[in-house]
Amino acid sequence: MEKGLLIVISGPSGAGKGTIYGAVTERLPSLRKSISVTTRAPRPGEKNGVHYHFRTVEEYRAMKARGEFLETAEVYKNFYGTPAAPVFEILSHGQDVMFEIDIEGAKQIKAKYPECVSIFIMPPSFEILEQRLRGRGTESEESLSTRLGSARQELAQYDRFDYIVFNDDAALATQRVIDIISAERCKVSRNEQTIQKILNEKSEI
User: What is the pLDDT of residues 41-63, one digit of tens each?
Assistant: First the structure.
């Protein structure tokens, strides 16, 4: 059985990676999602092992010390991480796993699993990215200025990724990501076992 694909979608806040991720997973229901570990408290309706694996800070640090994470991050004094073992188990069964993650997390995954397929979501212009962030209406001007500064730095890291998708239109960008996944599934290097099996079949003639 060929290994599945580990697909990473990333990009700065406001690029639309979350929207595209949701649309791709809806159109490709066979894509598996990983469940992250977090130290934050569960929100109403969240279930342990379904939405997150909820752990104490001490448990999280022990997992990190044992090298159990594909990527880790600290966000607003809470820790988040992706356990490697469940992801590799899914891949070993020939199923594809897809992540929507920030750029730092994407770089960590690429370093630990170089064969992953990394896709950078790029806004058509910085002006449009700013309009999208302002349109959310959830942040102060100071916070927005900080986020825009971070976004500009993150955009400059596009060359760390395998593919770039310009999100000028969400539907078109979604199709581009699906096309990338289809092309990756057709690579000779990802189908070597199946190819060799066909070549080694004995003829009945």
Answer: 998 999 998 889 999 999 999 99
Residue 157, classed as helix, strand or coil, is coil
Distance CA 82, CA 80 (A): 7
**Does residue 204 carry a pLDDT above 90?**
no
Which helix or strand (DSSP H or E) is residue 33 part of? Answer: strand 32-33
Query: Per-residue pLDDT averaged across 84-94, rounded?
Result: 95
- Cβ–Cβ contacts within 10 Å for residue 144, how many? 16
Q: What is the DSSP string of 9-32?
A: EE--TTS-HHHHHHHHHHH-TT-E
Q: Which residues pair with 52 in a beta bridge?
A: 48
Q: How far apart are CA 175 and CA 178, in angstroms?
A: 5
In the chain, CATH 3.40.50.300 covers: 1-31+96-200
Characterize the bridge pairing of strands 6-10 and 117-122. Answer: parallel
Task: Please state, in angstroms and rounded to a whole number, the distance separating the CA atoms of residues 198 and 54.
Answer: 46
Query: What does CATH list as the number for 34-94?
Result: 3.30.63.10
Tokens of 173: 């960008």
CATH 3.40.50.300 fits 1-31+96-200, yes or no: yes
The sheet carrying 78-83 orders its strands as 53-54, 37-38, 78-83, 69-75
pLDDT (mean) for 129-156: 77
How many whole angstroms separate alpha carbon 43 and alpha carbon 51?
A: 10
